[in-house]
């Protein structure tokens, strides 16, 4: 019964879609009551088909006519159609935007992985300039880096580590420097910013492959190849008057923009110069604690840190103009001139030279070059008094203060009977301090220095002296810089921390 109803409904649907005559014709053909003509449809068949087509067209026209007769219905249909089209278009646009966003995000991620495009506020402006001055680089025999990836590969670190070490953060939970104070000889404390191992390794690479290749002024003796405190003192031996001036805040006077400008002047593209300058400078920061967590908040400009291996070399290069002007002043006044880091020394035998006027002219040159003289460290030493240059006595020949040498021998003698904790020499660990001074004596007086060194070795063997744990620990715990020069004859002062000159 149900099957009959379904069959009847199918017939009604077919008749509704075409016509009764067409359905009857199809059924007659199917059941064999209408013979098929091999030559094609017969005239009655064609008439029936044509009638069906005309009826369909007519029904459509009737339908359209009914629509247009009902204006509200037509408008409603048009609105619905436009809304449907608009909805479809919105969905398509949304998909396009999402796809474009994903493509941009993927491209940005890929670019971040292969390039440095931002290094913090105030320092990222020049990262789009990648043009090197090849002539300047070749003149100084410096390597060419076409992009930051070549720089990272040359240093031997991943690009992401190069970005991390050079990023300028206003507020950070990490610091690339370990800060501590050491006592000054004149009293007070000096802040040292020693780079952490990863940054220190990068700075040593920059020192050896960039800054040490640049020639410095002949009057410079600090942190320069084949020069030392001895060569710095030698020109002033036997002079009537020795004038010594210290520059105040020498390294902090050199800020980030000067370092970046120097690197660009050497021929590096601005982008490479920005990265290198950030690696060699440190922002003045203050450590604060919030909710039990330490933050390093930037409160000043980026400057050369006292403690970075690159700082002395950079200042020597940047001070070339200063050294040239001071040398010109020395020639004009018939003086000898040397500079050891922030220690400037003039000496002369000319009776017509006025020492006070000379000091005034030196101060003026320093001020023009952006430096300030330390008001408490201007010394005019005449022949009748002890004349010292970087700790070396220069009255008649290179020597050491007899008073200080007697005090040193007294300390070594007392160590034979007293405990090391009861005695004091220099700053820090006693064993390190006396060893350093004995080495200093040997530089000037080899025989006396060797005897003092033997005495110290004996004291160490009898446990009268002991180095701190950091010195006696195993090699794996000692942070050693990369090899700088395999030639033992090319030993430099910067093989040791620059703040331990003597």
From TrEMBL:
Catalytic activity, as annotated: DNA(n) + a 2'-deoxyribonucleoside 5'-triphosphate = DNA(n+1) + diphosphate
Presence of keyword Magnesium: yes
Record-level Gene Ontology MF annotations: metal ion binding; RNA binding; RNA-directed DNA polymerase activity
Basic and acidic residues composition-biased segments: 489-502
UniProt keyword list: Antiviral defense, Coiled coil, Magnesium, Metal-binding, Nucleotidyltransferase, RNA-directed DNA polymerase, Transferase
Coiled-coil regions listed in the entry: 51-105
The keyword tRNA-binding is annotated on this UniProt entry: no
Segments forming domain Reverse transcriptase: 163-394
Region annotated Disordered, chain positions: 476-502
EC number: 2.7.7.49
Compositionally biased spans, kind Polar residues: 476-488
GO biological process annotation, one example: defense response to virus
Membership in a protein family: Belongs to the bacterial reverse transcriptase family.
Protein name listed in UniProt: RNA-directed DNA polymerase
Organism: Niastella vici
